[in-house]
Structures are given as C-alpha cells and as structure tokens.
Design a protein that fits this description.
This protein is an alpha/beta fold and 223 residues long. 52% of the residues lie in helices and 13% in strands. α4 packs across α5. The longest helix is centred in the middle third of the chain and has 15 residues. The termini are close together.
Length: 223
C-alpha cells in the first residue's frame, strides 16, 4: 500500500453496510467478476444475491472463531436434531431451542422441515446461526491445529491487529471508489492477514490454489 493511497483511505462507520453493492465501486468480488466479463460484472452488481451455501456459512463461522472468539460462542450454536412427530416432540424441541439460545420461537404449524426452517430463520434474525455438532467440532479442530506450537508464527500474524477492518478509498490514478474488508490489519507492523482455503498445504499445490482461486489478484488489490 503506497503512501498516496494511505492518505485517501478511511475507516467506515460501524453502521454502514459493507456488502451493499454499487455500480462503479470496486471491490475484490466485483473485480473478480469483471475479469470474467463486463456482462458477468453487471449481473453480479444488479442481480439478486445468491443464497449462501452451508460450506460458505461454515467458512464465515471459522473466520469469527479465529478472529473474534468472544463473539463466536454467542453467535454460533448447535441444537439437538430431535424428532418432531408429535405435539409433545415439537414443544420439547422449541423449549430446547429456547434453553440453548435464549430466543423464544413460536410453533408455526408447518411440517417438521418447515418448523426447522422457521427456527433457523428466527434465530438468524436474532443474530444466531445453527451449525451441526460435526461442523462445530471441525471448526474447533482447525483452531486447535493453528494453535499448535509449530504454527506459532502463522498464529501470531493472524492474531495481530484490528479484525474485520473495513477500508474505503479513492484510487488516485483512476478516481474509482474502492473498498476492502481485511480479516485483520496490523498498522504498526503493516501486516494484513486473510484466511483462505486451499487444496493442499504443500508448497506447489498451495501456489496452484492461490492462482486458481485468484488470491494473487486479491492480494494486489489489498496492497
């Protein structure tokens, strides 16, 4: 990041929605679509947002567990996968949801699948997301792996700085408004970290993953 760019960046106020898309505003996601084609970019910017998949939600949960562990435990939870064949079953299930999350949910009268969807959407509106026991175990396992002594250097980089650091700036050469959301930014040491998935941890395969997923473009944009 050069000094001219640093002068024009600004930290956004907490109440501004980073994910609101605006034509002509550059983000890594928007630029990735523009590299495919202008038509793909326009569809991304003006079309309906695609619903997030479960792997995407697990990835978001991992980021919070890694960077904001104090928030993770109050945002992500697991509820028993109980049978819902009778009124008593449904009542016990909703009572259990209330005990675990603290959020009361009223039976909507739908079938078992509809009731579970209703519970998930009600909890999501309260800022709580449900993961399976296996997903929670996987997340805790990944965090435990990163906390091993052999990964101390990587863990130290990830732990530094301000988390979920939002930037907005104007590119001095083009005048285009830009925005980025860094997993963490350590201003004192000028270090940014951004957690990514990869197909393999071997040097060669990791490099291939970086190129395949376009991480080198994202890093250039962030810097």
């Amino acid at each position: 990041m050069n000094e001219n760019t640093a002068r024009v960046w600004e930290m956004n106020s907490a109440d501004r929605n980073y994910y609101v898309k605006a034509l002509g505003e550059a983000s890594n996601s928007a630029m990735r679509r523009f590299r495919i084609s202008p038509e793909d970019y326009l569809d991304y910017m003006t079309g309906d947002d695609k619903p997030s998949t479960q792997p995407m939600r697990v990835g978001t949960a991992l980021h919070m567990a890694l960077h904001e562990p104090e928030r993770f435990s109050s945002r992500y939870m697991s509820i028993p996968n109980m049978a819902l064949k009778s009124k008593d079953n449904r009542r016990d299930f909703l009572n259990c949801v209330h005990d675990v999350t603290g959020v009361p949910v009223v039976d909507n009268g739908a079938n078992a699948e509809g009731l579970r969807d209703h519970v998930h959407s009600t909890l999501a509106s309260a800022g709580i997301w449900i993961l399976t026991d296996r997903e929670l175990a996987d997340i805790h396992g990944m965090i435990a792996s990163l906390n091993k002594p052999c990964n101390a250097m990587a863990r130290g980089i990830v732990s530094r700085g301000q988390k979920e650091f939002e930037l907005r700036w104007t590119d001095p050469a083009s005048g285009i408004k830009c925005k980025a959301l860094l997993d963490s930014w350590d201003a004192d040491n000028r270090l940014l970290s951004d957690v990514k998935r990869t197909e393999s941890i071997s040097e060669r395969e990791f490099r291939n993953s970086c190129y395949g997923f376009g991480y080198h473009h994202q890093l250039a944009f962030y810097r």
